[in-house]
Predict the 3D structure of the following.
Amino acid sequence: MLEVKDLRAGFDGSEIIKGISLSVKAGEVHAIMGPNGSGKSTLAKVLAGHPSYEVTGGEISFNGENLLEIEPEQRALKGIFMGFQYPVEIPGVNNAEFLRMAYNARLVNEGQEELDPLDFDDILTEKMKMLSMEKKYRERNLNDGFSGGEKKKNEILQMAILQPKLAVLDETDSGLDIDALRVVSDGVNKLKSADNALILITHYQRLLEYIQPDFVHVLSQGKIVKSGEKGLALELEAQGYDWLTPTN
Amino acid sequence: MTTTLIDAAEQAEAALLILHKKFMSGNRPPDALAPLNEAALKHFELLKFPHRKHEMYTFVNTKDLVATAFALTAEGSVTEDFIKSHVFPECESSYLVFVDGVLKGDLSDFSAIESAIAIVPIEEAVGQADIKEHLVDTIEKENDVFASINSAFLGEGTLIDVSAKKQVTSPLQILHVSTGTPSGKVTSHPRVLVRLGEMAELKMIVKYVGVQGNYFVNSVMDLLVGEQAGVTFAQVQEDATDAWHFSKTRVLQGRNSRVKAVNAFFGNKLTRHHFEAHLKDVGAELTLNNVSVLNEQEQAHHFVRIHHESPHTRSGQKFKNIVNDKSRSSVDGTVIVNQGAQQTFSDQLINNLMLSDDAHADNKPNLMIFADDVKCTHGATVGQLDENQLFYLKTRGLSEKVAKELLTKSFAESIIQTIDFPGVVQYLENTLLKKLEN
Ligand SMILES: Nc1ncnc2c1ncn2[C@@H]1O[C@H](COP(=O)(O)OP(=O)(O)OP(=O)(O)O)[C@@H](O)[C@H]1O
Ligand SMILES: [Mg+2]
């Protein structure tokens, strides 16, 4: 599904991603862990097409198609979803209306008719129930004044509505209390199928108890320095990252 | 030989004096008002038309306006359908229509609030000592030449009087219609005084519209807000694009009074709004929010002076201006905290969104503080759309065009949503925000 080959990317001439290769197949869950500043979020944003980052080498293909040539919105329409580590606040944009616009953009792209607010409401209600989100969040403005945890839930709500093929969740667990983490993980697990894939960026083993990864990768200084199965996450939690940090 | 700007202004001043003579002899203002007219004219001669470097007109070029010869408006006609289309749903039986500054009883309907307010012609109201004193005093102290001109031509003003403890439950709409003319240029000087007695409450919507262009509306509204009284109002400036709109809102606030104002500007050839507030007594609170959306060559300028004259007073101001194409906006806003006005809180935030390189957005936020125990902040930004917000929306599949439009609208929405009248909110979403679609 996703093939990343020797990807190099950076910001203002400084290289942050220094040659990453990663292969994700349908049905798989990959976890990416690693110390602060190692480039995890940068990788996620490059996958989503953030214009601030310059790709200086390598390839990204998604279902055989070169992602690097297409805009963020087209990547989204092809089924890539990024859950932001720091979801952006957009005052003045109603949450429910925004969700409907995003949902309809997907429908229109697939040649279907847009849903009117009433029909969409049913979908929204169901998804919000799944995430134990109170009704008031539909009337609020997009992430505006949301707490850290509320923002993360709202990201997963968007994922639930857009049903992506590949979701890259950047530290969705940070800021969630234990109950919210359980609800969100249950939600993500329900959305999982043999046809879609998940990349979880996290610092905590705890998330990986709820959502079991098939592979765990350790990112350090812009490179994947170790890959393994889910046991690796336990080792990391016990020993930290120092033993893996490249010495050069 | 070149004519300098000063010469042009002198000519314009001479022309205004002639126009005023005509007004005093031809239109014959009521006897009770004539001395006020004369006093205001004297004051006009003192202030004079602004020249380029006038400190109150730093960002506003009045050259063309001043050089234009205006006739006093011959009353044009306006249809009932036109009026109906501009009355907000919450005001169906609580609106007053002013056509070229003249209150039209037959076009108005305020049956819903008849028992709560008194509508008094200004020539009658001036018989009340405090109203007269207010007029005399403000004419003398006036610093804005266009407001002086308004008083010099005061003939048809109206006092809206809400007596002590009265609560006006339905919002009152004041609809100012300028009829304009297809040929020569005309001017009108609407004048409304609103007085709230102790503990009175009023909700009000003021809207300016034009039947056709070619006019200069030069309006003044005074709000005298008594102790513990509250006014919530919205002003919508939607004059003909081919028109000049100058208006002044003067607010005098008593002890523990609350005023909340939201102004929305569509802009036109030249719109300038002067908001002058005096928080005269302890505990007075003022909120002033403003939004403008300007395209093409439209202009809308704010000139704001907030005077904190007593301790424990509060003011908060927000401005959101969107400028596209070659449009221009400006905010010249000063908060003055008088000596002794301790424990004053004031904040002012000006945000400008530039959608084109040829647009202009000028800011001059300023604080003049003569007390030591106060908390005052101000800030101004001029920027383009936020790249991270744009990216966020695009990662959800929204196209660049849709995402930009949504963000631009949301910028204005954050002010529009502070309006307490759903009909006005909806109206602005359908009209003002429509200007952002293309
Ligand atoms: N927009 C930017 N401008 C400047 N430097 C940046 C920018 N984005 C990322 N960086 C730098 O790139 C490096 C990697 O950042 P990134 O956010 O990808 O780390 P991370 O692995 O997600 O860290 P964390 O675990 O703290 O979220 C950091 O040194 C960071 O300061
Ligand atoms: Mg990160």
